[in-house]
Amino acid sequence: MEENHMQAGKPILDIGDRPKWNNWLILSLQHLFTMFGSTIFVPSVTGMSPGVALVSSGLGSLAYLVITRGKIPAYLGSSFAFIAPLTMFIKQEHSPGSVMVGTFSVGVVYAIVSLIVYYAGVDWIQKVLPPVVVGPVIMVIGLSLAPNAANMAMGVTSGGYSGKAIAVALITLGVAILAMLVFKGFFGLIPILFGFAAGYVASMALGLVDYTLIKQASLFAVPDFTIPFKDADPIVTLTVILSMAPLAFVTMAEHMGHQLVLNKITNRNFFKEPGLHRSLLGDGTASIVASLLGGPPVTTYGENIGVLAITRVYSVFVIAGAAVLAVLFGFVGYINAVITSVPAPVLGGISLLLFGVIASSGLRMLIDSQIDLNINRNLVIVSVVLVIGIGGFFVQIHTVKIAGMAMAAIVGILLNLIIPVDKKTHQ
After folding, report:
1. What confidence tens digit (pLDDT) does each residue in 353-390 have?
2. Confidence tier at 399 by pLDDT (50, 70, 90)
3. Which of 30, 58, 221, 417 has the smallest number of Cβ neighbours within 10 A?
4. What is the rounded CA–CA span in Å between residue 178 and residue 235?
5. H/E run at residue 400
6. What residues pair up with 401 in beta bridges, in sequence order?
7. Which residues of 372-409 are buried (b: 16+ CB within 10 A; e: fewer)?
8. Residue ranges per domain, the chain?
């Protein structure tokens, strides 16, 4: 959804308005289906539980609404920024306890920054995380995941190169692109779901779907939660923490961008009321909730902001309804079984689009912010961040390893603080 189309309009339901009961369910379902594809995509790729991700998303959104005192209509879903580290650590067979602590650390970073914002304001964040740093880091997030997308699309991750897998991936990709380009309104906001559906049907026709879990499923099923001290003991692993915690600054920048768009849509200033510190704390608390359940980190969703802009229904009651429905859906066994049975080529086809969109959004940030790459300072920061993030550069001290996007983010922040700004161009 293009932000320049998200202009303020007279609301049909304002933030504090409660819809009539016969409209409430439909309006909340609309938000649920808008975030559904992206939220279940993250656990599907990383090997985590889709049911846990849905419950984490719902409870995290409710926590956010409580902390922001019901004044910001924002829905939170699984964050794409953490796909790479989660995939890496799960494949390396790090214990669930260490991954949970890594997710918890993301929320702690948010909490610390929210406290600083409360006392020191927001100007320092813009100095530490300007577009010249955030833009290329977002590009790294998308581009570093590109090999995973290609391997899934070609069937490499599920047994080897396969013509059937490529056919399914291309059908999935084609339908998702068509939905993005052709459909308007609400349907234009859920191209991922259209792609998923088309790819799944194609997989069924080509015999790529394993129906075992679906046959064994029941209507009600408790998701595969990983509860601290009950299912897994929290383990502090510095490698995991140092790879995940710095990415909080990237999603923080994205979060503030979403807040600016929401300000424009609703004709309010959420930075002042209820305050950016509350919004950041709510976002971080949602990730802490996810960590306590064994789910992926969550953050605010641009897709749902798009729904607000189109419908002009800003009611937090509608957002809360979507959150409750997400929790309920997480306990529906058939839904979890179907999601788990989605073949890798379907995920690969969607990934070819989504990971590219992530990278492109970083490039768009540089363009929109008019970052001049003819200026050596900017060129150095962007170039080094891209190569370090995509090239796999890492620093290891004993058993502690900082790599990939986290390393790129840290280096970008340091270069931005060290290299002096040209006083004539202010870049």
Report:
1. 888 887 888 898 899 889 999 999 999 999 999 999 99
2. low
3. 417
4. 45
5. strand 400-403
6. 396
7. eeebebbeebbebbbebbbeeeeeeeeeebbbbbbbbb
8. 21-418
